[in-house]
Design a protein that fits this description.
Length: 348
């Protein structure tokens, strides 16, 4: 079986092909990645300080067909070898999603093959299965992207319970907004963490919102206000303290993420934590989670850095795993349906 996956929900155009063959016992092996290609629009959006939806859609249109061709060529796959065409159905930018959906539907129609619309967050959740050391079910997932911060109980493919989430900004947003205050280019998360390496994480005691709330929810909106106030206080000297501000902001975000993840493990009684989404690329978060998980005797799984941020492989993989575990069947192509707002728990 071969599944082609197309991701176009935000500012990355990703295409990938995964494949698997049924084993002798009738159980399928984990899908293998056969090829992938990615184009990131970050440089294009940078001069505007954030993603411009209309530019994003137009760029997806320009990029997606050449990326599909590249994946087909590199994986020595013919059109006839494709069994299912998967695409990101939501959540994301409506216009951007429509590009991937339209191409997937058109391709499937031409090939007489079925389609599957994939939930972008499920792609992130299952992305650790692309790694050489995949986790086993069940596990707690910390999903930390530019738009979402959630703790999930992942029972099996398609069976997820929301344990807690951000009531305002996502962790990635907190990184990006603070980075902007420090004059770093969009999206500032990675740049802020590089700057933080030169600073003292204890220089400023920024708030750890909801740390003792007793639940697994997060709140990061107040952090940028605290950072902004601190920068005003520093006045003319502020720039000299930016590395300390960066390190202290990162320390605040990481501490809350780590403590709540540990609380989620305690609440479920499970011993496996999976981290997914763009902020999962943060080295300090990785270091702290490793330390805490080790001390709790829990195992920790990260997707490889290239699978943390948006990509086509996680979409092809999520579709393949849903097919394999029979939680969903691919359907005949038809409507160009996308769901810009689509809670993972309310799938239909
Ligand atoms: O998952 P993702 O690629 O896109 C969404 O679906 O949102 O996540 C992007 C987010 C951005 O906020 C970006 O600043 C953040 O991930 N990010 C990082 C790092 N690399 C990417 N945040 C902190 N440290 C990093 N090294
Ligand atoms: Zn994402």
């Amino acid at each position: 079986m071969r599944v082609l996956g197309i991701e176009s929900s935000c500012d990355e155009t990703g295409v990938a092909l995964v494949g698997w063959s049924p084993t002798q016992q009738g159980r399928a092996e984990l899908p293998r990645l056969l090829g992938h290609a990615l184009h990131t629009q970050i440089a294009m959006h940078r001069e505007y300080g954030g993603v411009v939806p209309e530019l994003a859609s137009r760029d997806h249109i320009r990029r997606v067909v050449p990326l599909v061709r590249e994946v087909m060529q590199h994986s020595a796959t013919t059109w006839r070898d494709i069994d299912v065409v998967a695409y990101t159905r939501g959540p994301g930018l409506a216009g951007a999603l429509l590009v991937g959906s339209a191409l997937a539907q058109g391709l499937a129609l031409a090939l007489h093959k079925p389609v599957m619309g994939v939930h972008h967050l499920e792609g992130h959740l299952l992305s650790p299965f692309l790694s050489a050391d995949p986790p086993q079910f069940p596990f707690v997932a910390l999903l930390v992207s530019g738009g979402h911060t959630q703790l999930m109980a992942v029972h099996s493919v398609g069976h997820y319970d929301l344990l807690g989430e951000s009531i305002d900004d996502a962790a990635g947003e907190a990184f990006d907004k603070t980075a902007k205050l420090l004059g770093l280019d969009y999206p500032g998360g990675a740049a802020l963490s590089r700057m933080a390496e030169q600073g003292n994480p204890k220089a400023f005691a920024f708030p750890r919102p909801l740390l003792h709330s007793g639940d697994l929810n997060f709140s990061f909106a107040g952090l940028k206000t605290a950072v902004w106030t601190q920068i005003q206080k520093l006045g003319d000297q502020a720039a000299a303290h930016f590395p300390d501000v960066a390190a202290s902001t990162q320390a605040a975000i990481v501490e809350v993420l780590v403590r709540k993840s540990m609380a989620a493990l305690a609440q479920t009684g499970w011993q496996r934590l999976v981290v997914a989404g763009g902020v999962g690329a943060n080295a300090e978060l990785r270091r702290q989670l490793s330390l805490y998980c080790q001390s709790q005797g829990a195992s920790l799984h990260f997707p490889e850095l290239s699978w943390c941020t948006d990509n086509g492989a996680m979409i092809a993989l999520a579709a393949a795993m849903r097919l394999q575990s029979s939680v969903e069947s691919a359907v005949l192509p038809g409507a160009f349906d996308v769901k810009p707002r689509w809670p993972l728990m309310a799938r239909e």
